[in-house]
Specification:
Length: 134
């Protein structure tokens, strides 16, 4: 199985995402990862800031992926839902550092979507994803 990240020269250079990710596999499993917020094991949202909640939500997403035998480099697609897109943009550098520390430098195809609110009212961010696990 291989994931190929494609970033065409005619598109703006990607920062913190890949424009396209192709998966080639003769064997493997397509894994759909449910939306993860900053829930602790007791089901309570932790973290006061977007960056704190992002770190926990990403950790939860990666824990779900690990439970399937996957690793961050198997992520083909991640969607981020944020209740305050301006806050997300303002903290993009910090969020990028969190991503690189937890998931590495190979970015999946990604999108950021502004949401009025999330399932957990105190959640500021939620991440879901798709991975190809060999």
């Amino acid at each position: 199985m291989s994931l190929e990240r494609t970033n065409p020269a005619e598109l703006a250079p990607p920062t913190g995402f890949s424009h396209a990710v192709s998966v080639t596999a003769t064997e493997g499993r397509l894994v759909f990862l449910a939306g993860q917020t900053a829930l602790d094991p007791a089901g309570e949202v932790v973290g006061e800031t977007l960056v704190e909640q992002f770190e926990t939500a990403l950790g939860n997403l990666l824990a779900a992926l690990a439970a399937t035998g996957g690793t961050p480099d198997h992520l083909a697609r991640v969607t981020i839902y944020a209740t305050d897109v301006a806050d997300y943009r303002a903290h993009a550098a910090e969020l990028g550092r969190v991503w690189r520390r937890l998931a590495g430098r190979d970015y999946p195809a990604m999108a950021l979507i502004g949401a009025v609110r999330l399932w957990d009212e105190s959640a500021l961010v939620e991440l879901d994803g798709i991975a190809m696990v060999p």
